[in-house]
Amino acid sequence: MGVLFHSDGVDYSLPNSEKTKSWLEKCISLQNKKCGDINVIFCNDDYLLAINKTYLNHDYYTDIITFDYSQKQKISGDLFISITRIVDNAKKLNIDFLDELYRVIVHGVLHLCGFNDKTNEEIKKIRAKENEMLLLIY
Predict the structure, then answer these.
(1) What does the CA dihedral 93, 16, 104, 81 come to, rounded to 10 degrees?
(2) Domains of the chain (ranges, CATH numbers)
(3) What's the CA gap between 18 and 21, in Å, rounded?
């Protein structure tokens, strides 16, 4: 059990994966949850677009799609993350690639912990929690 990192369709390997895994486990614990099986799958735009079309009936690019398999307090799921989107978003926002990647990863984990981002109020809450959790990685 725990957080595992994979690549599918992209040649990307997360630096400091053990540090990132420990950080995510701490983020989960701070939400009063337990870490189950979480797969973080790094992919490209086309791969994630196909998932978006097939499973969500959405025809647009996104940076992350989260599939939640959590049961009660045990957090489990698959986080599909487009490295292509992360690169583009980091350039547009003029921030470091890893900073944007960590934000997206913890965003997915927060979804597994029960945070949503459908309304403006929910977006404010999840962004604030992302910022709070990001302080713990540095």
Answers:
(1) 110
(2) 2-134 (3.40.390.30)
(3) 5
Whether the model pTM is above 0.90: yes
Cβ contact 86:63 at 8 Å: yes
Segment (H or E) for 65: strand 64-68
Q: β-strands 74-82, 2-7: how paired? A: unpaired
Integer Cα distance of 135 and 138 in angstroms = 6
Q: What is the pLDDT of residues 49-76, one digit of tens each?
A: 999 999 999 999 999 999 999 999 999 9
pLDDT at 138: 77
Coil/strand/helix, residue 103 = helix
Residue pair 100/89 in contact (Cβ under 8 Å)? The answer is: yes
Tell me, what's the pLDDT at 52? 95
* Angle at CA of residue 128, ends 124 and 130, nearest 5°: 115
Pull the structure tokens for residue 114: 């029960």
